[in-house]
Amino acid sequence: MPEPCAEALQRLQSAVVGCRRCPRLVAYRQQVAREKVRRFRDEMYWAKPLPGFGDPTATLLIVGLAPAAHGGNRTGRMFTGDRSGEFLFRALYAAGFASQPECSHRDDGLRLWNCYVTAAARCAPPANKPTVEELTACRPYLVRELLLLERVRVVVTLGRIGFDAFLKAWVDAGRQPLGTLPPFSHTAEVELPGGVTLLASYHPSQRNTQTGLLTSAMFSRIFRRADRLIIISGLERQR
User: Fold this and answer.
1) Closest CA relative to residue 64, chosen from 135, 161, 173
2) Which of the residues 3, 111, 165, 203 could staple to 159 if both were Cys, CB 3.0 to 4.6 A apart?
3) How far apart, in Å, are the Cα atoms of 167 and each of 164, 218, 233?
4) What fold, for 3-233?
């Protein structure tokens, strides 16, 4: 990606961090940072919106739901410091998209190769449930990421909300109209106009992984398929 585009992505990330569009989410993320939980009582919480992060030349884009109250809202990085992130980054490491399987804090040395991680909502919502209005307010950030991440060929959405949010952002980004789409289901695969493939996965929430709805083997297959599709697209994976 040309340097001006990388700089534009950095400006977008800064704009996300300064966002205060949703009063309910602003109040909640700050309340969580004040009250904390016992195991993190000595830590300083991030307590701000979370920007996407990763490789600006990525061919793989991952769209999650929202930061966890005591995960990303604490550590300052998407999917970091909670069980969902541990599950995700182990899978990305195994597939060659991450430099390490551990994800404890935004300064832990983790790097993503050919992969960018973002979410439908950028603030931790009460009960992990952003409202329709909050998702709508946050969507322009995802739209802008789609426009800037020009090499993306595979999008993996985590959960139904991530799936729906991505499809709405795709349309808002002015991409070609979509035909009839299958309903959300794990491993659903959709060929989008413009040479982009959408892969749907269950969200790696603790509830899904502990009940076996989503296993490590199931999750690994998603990213092996993503890697295969990137190879088929003809774009080389960059390191």
Assistant:
1) 161
2) 203
3) 5, 23, 21
4) Uracil-DNA Glycosylase, subunit E (3.40.470)
